[in-house]
């Protein structure tokens, strides 16, 4: 399935009203890792080193920014953008968002949901530039805004209380926060919610948005914030198991185990977006030697041919591992 086909599917789903009626359509952007090798040297120019707590390189893996349609009852993965050393999830996410909105059309979606890594001016300005709203997790990486919101919300009882999947939720909601330097918004709105299960606080989270108070209710914002999780929870697994986007051959054909998965990922990595150079992996060695892919695996077969690549990294989807917990 090609990237264009996924975009076409998303547009068709919207036209045919597959998405839950009345819901705003979200695009969740998030980073995930895919593929892994225990080697101390990189295999290709997209390999990023993994370090232990003593800063020793313990392996390499690939990382991508991913985007999915969320918030509408079904989660639909759209695209991924890899980032290698010297690049970042944030910058890859911006490339991805720009590309996706230009394919989908500016009026396809209503908002972008993302975690706190994306709570920075370049990303939020881009969201606005492409005609969308943002709902992004607010944490201590924006200490000034976070601190101001804490002070305001701690000084009063919740603005609203409601039930969400049987759990009590208290929410605080306030607009009118000053944008920080570089952010082109007129003002920033912040919500905080506390979720309780059996009387205990299970989740406390802050989110920032540019949605005006009179356009979107606190509860609607809460749902949009929650929709971000769908990209990790459902998106790629759904794609693999229900929509036939998993094209990996049986594991035995790949040589088995982690390296097989790694090899498949390196193969499919080659199918990633245009700016990437085509990887040339060395003829394989099996058995976990650093920096090599299994012999006869698709990593060797697939990396060097441009013609018949799928436009989406199906193996990346298969190997995506959630990094974070729900918020
Ligand atoms: Zn690599």
Description:
It is a single chain. Residues 238-323 have low confidence and may be disordered. The chain is of the alpha+beta class and 327 residues long. The chain has a domain at 138-219. Strands 1, 2, 3, 4, 5, 6, 7, 8, 9 and 10 form a ten-stranded mixed beta sheet that branches. It is built from ten helices and ten strands. It is 31% helix and 26% strand. Zinc ion (ZN) binds next to loops. Zinc ion binds next to loops.
Write the topology of this structure:
Elements: H1 3-15, E1 26-37, E2 48-51, E3 57-70, E4 76-83, H2 89-104, E5 111-114, H3 121-129, E6 133-138, H4 143-154, E7 160-164, E8 167-177, E9 188-197, E10 200-209, H5 218-227, H6 230-242, H7 251-254, H8 257-269, H9 298-303, H10 314-319
Parallel strand pairs: 1-5, 5-6
Antiparallel strand pairs: 1-3, 2-3, 3-4, 6-10, 7-8, 8-9, 9-10
Bound molecules: zinc ion (ZN).
Residues 43-44, 46-47, 62, 266 line the site of zinc ion.
């Amino acid at each position: 399935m090609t990237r264009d086909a996924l975009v076409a599917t998303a547009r068709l789903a919207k036209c045919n009203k597959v998405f839950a009626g009345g819901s705003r359509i979200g695009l969740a952007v998030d980073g995930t890792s895919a593929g892994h090798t225990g080697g101390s040297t990189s295999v290709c120019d997209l390999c990023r080193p993994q370090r232990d707590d003593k800063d020793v390189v313990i392996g390499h893996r690939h990382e991508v920014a991913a985007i999915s349609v969320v918030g509408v009852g079904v989660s639909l993965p759209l695209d991924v953008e890899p980032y290698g050393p010297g690049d970042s999830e944030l910058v890859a996410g911006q490339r991805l968002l720009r590309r996706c909105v230009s394919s989908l059309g500016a009026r396809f979606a209503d908002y972008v949901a993302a975690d706190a890594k994306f709570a920075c001016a370049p990303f939020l300005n881009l969201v606005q530039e492409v005609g969308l709203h943002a709902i992004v997790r607010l944490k201590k990486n924006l200490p000034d805004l976070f601190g101001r919101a804490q002070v305001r919300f701690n000084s009063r009882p919740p603005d609203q209380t409601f039930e969400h999947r049987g759990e009590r939720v208290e929410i605080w909601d306030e607009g009118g926060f000053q944008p920080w330097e570089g952010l082109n918004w007129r003002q920033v709105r912040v919500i905080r919610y506390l979720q309780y299960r059996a009387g205990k606080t299970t989740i406390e989270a802050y989110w920032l948005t540019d949605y005006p108070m009179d356009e979107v209710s606190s509860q609607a914002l809460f749902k949009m914030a929650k929709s971000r999780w769908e990209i990790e929870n459902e998106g790629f697994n759904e794609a693999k198991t229900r929509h036939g986007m998993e094209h990996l051959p049986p594991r035995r054909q790949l040589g088995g185990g982690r390296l097989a998965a790694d090899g498949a990922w390196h193969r499919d990595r080659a199918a990633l977006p245009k700016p990437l150079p085509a990887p040339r992996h060395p003829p394989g060695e099996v058995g976990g030697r650093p920096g090599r892919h299994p012999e006869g695996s698709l990593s060797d077969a697939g990396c060097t041919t441009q013609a018949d690549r799928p436009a989406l990294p199906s193996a990346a989807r298969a190997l995506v591992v959630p990094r974070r917990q729900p918020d």
